[in-house]
Design brief:
The complex is a heterotetramer, with two copies of chain A (375 residues) and two copies of chain B (332 residues). Chain A folds into two domains: 13-323, Thiamin diphosphate (ThDP)-binding fold, Pyr/PP domains (Rossmann fold, 3-Layer(aba) Sandwich), CATH 3.40.50; 334-375, no CATH class. Helix content of chain A is 43%, strand content 12%. Chain A contains 14 helices and eight strands. Chain A has helices at residues 25-28, 34-59, 73-82, 96-102, 106-113, 138-151, 170-181, 229-246, 274-281, 285-295, 301-324, 332-335, 343-351, 361-366, and strands at 3-14, 88-90, 158-163, 186-192, 195-196, 199-200, 220-225, 250-255. Chain B is of the alpha/beta class and 332 residues long. Chain B folds into two domains: 2-184, Thiamin diphosphate (ThDP)-binding fold, Pyr/PP domains (Rossmann fold, 3-Layer(aba) Sandwich); 197-326, Rossmann fold, CATH 3.40.50. Chain B contains twelve helices and 14 strands. In chain B, the strands form four sheets. In chain B, strands 9-11-10-13-14 form a five-stranded mixed beta sheet, with helices on both faces. A four-stranded mixed beta sheet of chain B has the order 5-7-6-12. Chain B is globular, with a radius of gyration of 20 Å. The N and C termini of chain B lie far apart (47 Å). Classes of the chains: A alpha/beta (375), B alpha/beta (332). Chains A and D meet through helix 6, helix 7 and helix 13 of A and helix 3, helix 4, helix 5, helix 9 and helix 10 of D. Strand 1 (3-14) of chain A pairs antiparallel with strand 1 (3-14) of chain C. The complex binds thiamine diphosphate (2 copies) and magnesium ion (MG) (2 copies). One thiamine diphosphate (TPP) sits between chains C (94, 133-135, 163-166, 191, 193, 195-197, 258, 262) and D (29, 58, 60, 82, 86, 89).
Chain lengths: 375, 332, 375, 332
């Protein structure tokens, strides 16, 4: 058989609650109980409020660059909902909604974007790593975290989040490859939001799907509607189970969309078609889940009103907490470099200078000018 | 003459070189329709089209690695890396290949790329958007490294870099992108790579810097009553030892200012060269006013990290005073 | 349709002349005319002799580390045979056979491993880049070379060679991704020889095939028998045509085997099963092509004898040429760094020192000790 | 006590730390069954099994990146990078993450990895197998960098490195792997990171080096009739400024020797610190005997590139003679 087929593959795309509000009862069975759907909706609403307030903080000069999460909330929320509380979360910077669900106080994210490292001083029992600024690098950490869990025979796994752009970085490939070949329990969640700043996804991946990245590694891979919290929860739940049971990784492409600019430093109107945005505004994950609740009479306008008020309150309180934290002092720069501070650094810390340190003034008094040592 | 910002001067240089030579092409993240996150390549996509101004996948090693191939085939690619922190993934291709190709092949293959990279702190950017890695690349033989501190030099140096037959890393101090304007000739001109510029002449002490801190040096000079000679290196590698040495032989004293951490920074190399060449002229230890030997902090503390004017002034005063009080003026 | 199939793929494996000497006449039709098969066989035989001699040169201390090519000759030879003379060859270090076919004088390879850069001073009209030592890095150069050809509207393409190990490097992924998304005419030839030093291929790729690496990029990909020169020529020929015609890249996994140690610095008995080696010795590409010729009476023992003599002669002559080249002089270190030598480097070259350069002795005479400049 | 080579001393240290602490695991290319291309991990796979001695895919960024994750979870990974030239692909993970994690998270996450890397020239290896990139990593705050020059120090430093709560790059001078043997205690012991070793005491000049050139320095001393003090740094970062300064204040003269190119090499930093701290004691310009500012050549010329004993001797003689002839002994 000279030209035989040696490998077959197909990629599935999973959707449960679609844009029109249709719910696939079979696929969606038992994925999220109704009471949780309400809680998830409430949480998403608060996150949306957080996003708006963060944006305004930047605009009014109270915070640095901020990347809006708007429109992508269901991805991380559905994922984190489906995971165990001690599964590692390894985010990029559009996963606020999932991180808050896990329990991260909102002021941490604010502090981070306010240029304060204390925003990354995340309690270890939250099992999450700080936001990753260098794109595509954090997935390798997820692989290591998952590996450590396996080595210690723990039940925990790791879930890495990253964008479509991140899949172009070599580190992404190395992470997927390590996980696949070393049999490590990692769930890779790619938030395909259509853009990497101004560059459309097709320049990161001209293949029909991003999900098929995983085929290269013989990894399970699947596409799903990232604005559908049911699909997210289901797909991540299955991937997590596969990881826990078989130590096998999964690559998930979550189709979503960045409704805002890339960050507050960006202006998407320069490169993005208004029509595309309009189309996606209708697919807003928040609208979709609200429709679901309304259809089932699980939520109404009065609860919505109360929720909006609560959202405003909670976010305002978080802003207050973030802004009330005393500014860092210059010694903070030095105090966290190593477990023990080297002498030279201690001098720099004490003097806040890099010059003059060697000019021991006593030299001038005690010493006669450079004694000749030659015979 | 036009009154341009540094961004505009670079933009103009790119346009002129691209019009002159169709082997010049631009590639990088967001350089196309968006005109670059700092708008340095603004208008070029429209002017030169998608074949010459190319948005690439988000992969720095890929951008530099393919640029090397493009250059080996005879083109003159001008890749843009979005921030100096993201030059790190391309470190391997730059140092392992770009820097060594000519030597390895005895000039059969050369790598005339100009890698443009915004550099340095001071703009309240997130983590890894404020570093100064110039010494890293200067330590790799085979690369050239430049960093202009003014619109005039930016244009002239960039044209030199693009025409240079060897790989040049062109660092653009982002803090100066729009900090001030300067008269810049509309015609093309070059600023020679490897030549420093004496910004201010003086006799008491030589102040040496490059990039954004040059402005801080100017501020320090303005507030001093001493006669300070300011040298803007412009080229990090090759280094203009001659200009530095000549100045320090005149002044007997030197202060070096840079944003990168002190340890193994370029300041150490300059101080060493001065010491080697001016040993008998030195009246005070050469001082380094630099970033601290700790990670560049998030932006709330960046001002404390950077070598701002008050720190430069303190060092200048100290160096000038050194030895004079105790009559040890000629001891050093 | 909630879980719809959004992507389908399959990988083919191509074989024409198999281990038993069976020739697939349909697939093999017109791939290589008989006269060329003879020439290719002769060339492979000479390369095999080159490999043996190079190995001995190392063992007798006349050359540094050398990576044997033995057993993999058909891969690069079949590929280069199928390409145009101005298609770029971007090799790793097991492609001697293909490079010599293109016209590289054998002494270049010897000089390289003798620690002499002149081994890389390859005439530009051979369209080949120097051997790549850092694994996985050269494929990006192939992408750039191909891009330049496309930009200049030339008909030429680039062909990159690399091992199974190389596919684990991030750069490999970036190269494939650039080529796929920018529509560049590159043929990627992966020599899957079973090992990366002591690490078996399954640690580089636990998927059923390495060929499926290409699926991640929506790239054409195919596996083929790398010890079958017909399969190689056919598959590369088709890929080259696709590149030239459509500017589309192809990923080819050539199944082959490293019959020797990794390099002369390695001892494969430490980690490799003798039985595996024995199995592959029977699949030696040289035996296979010889069988083909014998079956068709295109070659006989007397020609073989003459060929062996010619091989010995040609290789000995190459060794002589390499060894007769005068040793490099120390100034060679400095002369090829930049187009123009910076002043400081010229001083280092002239003095062969890095110390003392600043101690202008005239200072000692002309100067009185450090004049005080202070008022 | 056992009479061990440097390779054996490292192997012993690995065994002892792995027996003591099951959070220590080894990962890298060919470290398993094959025992590493230099046989440094020989026998460990058999002894500790495939879960603790792990062959990985051929990807250096992957090796360091996953090690960072392992360390963040509380393990103490000891990744091996096969040659220093192939540390470059891991530069980004080392400098962007390993070095910054503690600072970025205010110690909530730490990265106690020990990255072992053979380093340096002199063994007739192919391209990119003979470089000395230590200054690059010293310039990155947050990393520690060490390089032993003897079996005794190798064992003690490696144990310190593995126990260190922060990332350490452990450079192993491959030219010394089997160059000589030394008595090494069989029990575990540590050599403190950040402390240099005075190898030979002397009064006329301070000779400073680390790694393989230490042996060349010894040869130069053996052939000299002067009283030379030899300091083996052992730790590149943090640097033991005190020991250096104390010595140079005694001798008034210094020569620094390293294999890396001179420009922006560690020698510049050391010379600068000496100049800053010993200005009034210096009787001659500090000299740097280093690799040249050109690409490390292929092996036919490597001996000409490396700072061999004759070049060190020449610099020593010159520095000692400096000023004495003309009576300028106290002028520096
Ligand atoms: C290594 C690296 N290169 C470049 C950047 C600059 N940058 C920040 S975000 C971004 C786009 C990221 O796109 P994607 O991964 O799709 O994530 P998204 O922002 O769409 O969520 C770029 C290029 C960076 N942060 N890191
Ligand atoms: C970046 C890099 N890492 C490590 C090495 C050391 N090394 C040389 S060859 C080799 C194995 C290469 O395996 P593969 O790509 O399969 O090629 P093969 O030798 O089997 O032809 C390794 C690890 C290297 N040369 N470059
Ligand atoms: Mg995106
Ligand atoms: Mg292989």
């Amino acid at each position: 058989m000279p030209a035989k087929i040696v490998f077959h593959a197909k990629i599935e795309s999973v959707s449960i609650l679609d844009e029109q509000g249709n719910f696939d009862a079979k696929l969606g069975k038992d994925v999220i109980p109704d009471t949780d759907v309400v809680r998830l909706y409430e949480h998403m609403t608060i996150c949306r409020q957080f996003d708006e307030v963060a944006f305004k903080l930047q605009r009014s000069g109270r915070m640095g660059t901020y990347p809006e999460n708007r429109g992508q909330e269901a991805v991380s929320l559905g994922a984190v909902y489906a995971l165990h509380p001690d599964d590692w979360l390894v985010p990029c910077y559009r996963e606020n909604c999932g991180l808050f669900w896990r329990g991260l106080p909102m002021e941490y994210i604010l502090l981070h974007w306010m240029g304060d490292e204390r925003g990354n001083e995340i309690p270890r029992d939250l099992y999450m790593t700080p936001q990753a600024i260098p794109i595509g690098t954090q997935m390798l950490h997820a692989v290591g975290l998952a590996w450590a869990g396996k080595y210690r025979k723990k039940d925990s796994i790791a879930c890495a989040f990253f964008g479509d752009g991140a899949t172009s970085e070599g580190d992404c490939h190395e992470a997927l490859n390590f996980a696949a070949n070393l049999d490590l329990p990692v769930v890779f969640v790619c938030q395909n939001n259509g853009w990497a700043i101004s560059v459309p996804t097709k320049m990161q991946c001209s293949a029909p799907t991003l999900a098929q990245r995983g085929l290269a590694y013989g990894m399970e891979c699947v596409q799903c509607d990232g604005n559908d919290i049911f699909a997210m929860a289901k797909v991540v739940g299955e991937a997590a189970e596969r990881a826990r049971r078989d130590h096998r990784p999964t690559f998930i492409e979550a189709l979503t969309y960045r409704l805002g600019d890339h960050t507050t430093a960006d202006d998407a109107r320069r490169y993005r078609d208004e029509a595309e945005l309009k189309k996606w505004l209708k697919r807003d994950p928040l609208i979709r889940i609200r429709t679901y609740l309304q259809q089932r009479k699980l939520f109404d306008d009065s609860r919505e009103k109360a929720l909006q008020a609560r959202a405003r309150e909670e976010v305002a309180a978080a802003v207050k907490r973030a802004e009330e934290i005393a500014a860092p002092t210059s010694s903070d720069m030095f105090d966290w470099l190593y477990a023990e501070m080297p002498g030279e650094l201690a001098t720099q810390r004490a003097t806040l200078r890099t010059s003059g340190l060697g000019q021991d003034p006593s030299q001038l008094q005690e010493q006669s000018p450079a004694p000749s040592r030659n015979p | 003459m036009a009154n341009l910002t540094l961004v505009q001067a670079i933009n103009l240089a790119l346009i002129q070189e691209m019009e002159k030579d169709d082997s010049v092409i631009i590639l990088g993240q967001d350089v196309g329709v968006n005109g670059g996150v700092f708008r340095v390549t603004e208008g070029l996509f429209k002017r030169f089209g998608p074949e010459r101004v190319v948005d690439t996948p988000l992969a720095e090693s890929g951008i530099i690695g393919t640029s090397i191939g493009l250059a080996m085939a005879g083109l003159r690619p001008v890749p843009e890396i979005q921030f100096e922190g993201f030059l790190a993934p391309a470190y391997d291709q730059l140092c392992t290949h770009a820097a060594r190709m000519r030597t390895r092949t005895r000039s059969m293959f050369t790598v005339p790329i100009t890698c443009r990279v915004p550099v340095g702190g001071g703009i309240h950017a997130p983590e890894l958007h404020s570093d100064s890695p110039e010494a890293i690349y200067a330590h790799q033989p085979g690369l050239k490294v430049v960093m202009p501190a003014s619109p005039y030099d930016a244009k002239g140096l960039l044209i030199s870099a693009i025409r240079d037959p060897d790989p040049v890393i062109f660092f653009e101090p982002k803090r100066l992108y729009r900090a001030f304007r300067e008269e810049v000739p509309e015609d093309e001109y070059t600023v020679e790579i490897g030549k420093a510029r004496i910004v201010v002449e003086g006799n008491d002490v030589t102040l040496i810097s490059w990039g954004a801190p040059v402005v801080q040096c100017m501020n320090a000079i303005d507030s001093s009553h001493h006669s300070i000679e300011l040298i803007d290196l412009r080229s990090i590698c090759p280094l203009d030892t001659e200009t530095i040495v000549e100045s320090v032989r005149k002044t007997g004293r030197a202060v070096i200012v840079h944003e990168a951490p002190r340890n193994c920074g370029l300041g150490a190399e300059i101080a060493s060269r001065i010491m080697e060449h001016c040993f008998l002229y030195l009246e005070a230890p050469i001082q380094r006013v630099t970033g601290f030997d700790t990670v560049m902090p998030y932006y709330k503390l960046e001002q404390e990290y950077l070598p701002e004017a008050h720190r430069i002034s303190a060092a200048l005063e100290e160096v000038i005073a050194y030895g004079t009080a105790t009559g040890l003026g000629s001891a050093g």
